[in-house]
Amino acid sequence: MGEGYGSYIVDAKKNVSIPNIISENSHVQEGGRGKPQFCKAKQKIAIIIPFRNREPHLTIWLQYMLPFLQKQQGDFGIYVVEQIRNTTFNRAKLMNVGFSEAKKDYDYNCFIFSDVDIIPMNDRNLYRCSENPKHMANSLDKFNFRLPYETIFGGVVAFTKEQFLKINGFSNRFWGWGGEDDELYNRIVAAGMKIERPDPEIARSTMIFHNRDTGNEATGKSFGLINKAAQFMHLDGLSSLKYDVIKHTRHKLYTNITVNIGTQL
Ligand code: BGN
After folding, report:
1. For residue 129, which phi and psi values (nearest 5 degrees)?
2. What DSSP element (H or E) covers 68?
3. Rg (CA), the chain
4. Of 44, 72, 96, 218, which sits 20 to 30 A from 28 (CA to CA)?
């Protein structure tokens, strides 16, 4: 990539407001859609963010990521998929909902599934899909910029539409914190694919500090499924996904999909 790209510091404490972000990103269209102004992008990228009760993080994410994605000449749409209150959080199922809903909007061929609290610190970390499913945030400050274990596949991951369909998406059966990303990794391997990671120097990212959320405790109930990915992936995932959209709003900076995904049986 050319000059003017590189690393920068993310200041998560800076006071920013949505109206400011709107005025600083005048090319971003209703629903959080952006397109390169002077060329045509090959990839059409939907960014899917599972969400509940993290408005301050979303504001910071938008502040950094809208300029970032535009600078990278992305043709993108931002989807914030919000689980309705009072049921245990299910990150993976929200990702599947985001994929299914975004597809109705535009001919997206690349899906980037991102936590709301992770921000890359180098704009050479190309938010694009690749030959293989890609682990974008592989170098996190939280883990001293190292992989805590070799098969970790959490935080921010990128799939082409074909790659994601090939594994039938995420499992819908992980309620509460943890494990859904490990199961996702096993799906990829079971489907005969490999993962790839950008160079850790380039992939350096920050996770905005926060306390553990209530309603997203690690229940451990689904952990037994992690090693059964090959057995269940064709039954459990996009093909078995059920949900009700409660509200679908096009905010100036993102599309907000509030959804009822049920509760753990
Ligand atoms: C692991 C979690 C992942 C998480 C990473 C990093 C589990 C399953 C245990 C059997 N896996 O421990 O989901 O991304 O930590 O925080 O909890």
Report:
1. -90, 165
2. helix 55-71
3. 17
4. 96
CA of 149 to the centre of ligand 1 (A): 10
Residue 94: count other Cβ atoms within 10 Å of its Cβ.
27
Superfamily of domain 18-260: Spore Coat Polysaccharide Biosynthesis Protein SpsA; Chain A (3.90.550.10)
The answer to whether the CB of 154 is under 6 A from ligand 1 is: yes
Residue 229: burial class (beta carbons within 10 Å; 0-12, 13-18, 19+) = buried
CA 215, distance to chain mean position in Å, is 20
* Ligand 1 near 155 CB (within 6 A): no
Identify the pLDDT of residue 13. 85
Give the global pTM. 0.97
77 close to 252: Cβ distance less than 8 angstroms: no
Dihedral sign for Cα atoms in the order 176, 182, 186, 189? positive
Q: What percent of the chain has pLDDT over 70?
A: 99
